[in-house]
Design a protein that fits this description.
Length: about 150
């Protein structure tokens, strides 16, 4: 499911308070509108109603498309400066899964692609969607996946 909520944000430039929709997760299969907003640059985008200052709201965002088996996670670049953030990954940059859960986790969620730029997130999703479309249209092309 997609997760978003309204939050009160102060403009970093003029301190004007305003309510902004903030997304922490987009499920593109269940919420294609969220996918479209991401591609249009409207997810976690702040524009001050008073001074018109614009910026990205720097919070993590998980993009998940269960139908296409695509999972990518954006983190603000400053996350890399924190030991507790780095401790979540192995040397290959893969999330370290700890503990047990009482439900089946799809394989593609165990290998989430990590990005530190929202444009990179969009480019990665486009790349994966193009690969899927290409292989559907060219079934004789070798599928090099290990799945």
């Amino acid at each position: 499911m997609s997760i978003h909520e309204n939050r009160t944000v102060n403009c970093p430039k003029c301190q004007q308070k305003q309510t902004v929709m903030v997304w922490s997760s987009i499920n593109a299969t269940l919420n294609p509108e969220g996918r479209n907003k991401l591609f249009e640059g409207q997810i976690n985008h702040f524009k001050c109603v008073k001074c018109e200052y614009e910026s990205l709201i720097p919070i993590p965002l998980l993009y998940h498309d269960p139908e296409r088996k695509i999972a990518a996670h954006y983190f603000p670049p400053e996350s890399m400066q924190k030991a507790e953030f780095l401790d979540q990954f192995d040397l290959d940059g893969k999330f370290v899964v700890t503990g047990e859960v009482d439900f089946d986790v799809p394989d593609h969620l165990l290998d989430v692609h990590v990005v530190f730029n929202m444009n990179e997130l969009v480019s990665y999703v486009i790349f994966r969607e193009m690969l899927i479309e290409f292989h559907q249209q060219n079934p004789s092309s070798p599928d090099l996946s290990l799945n």
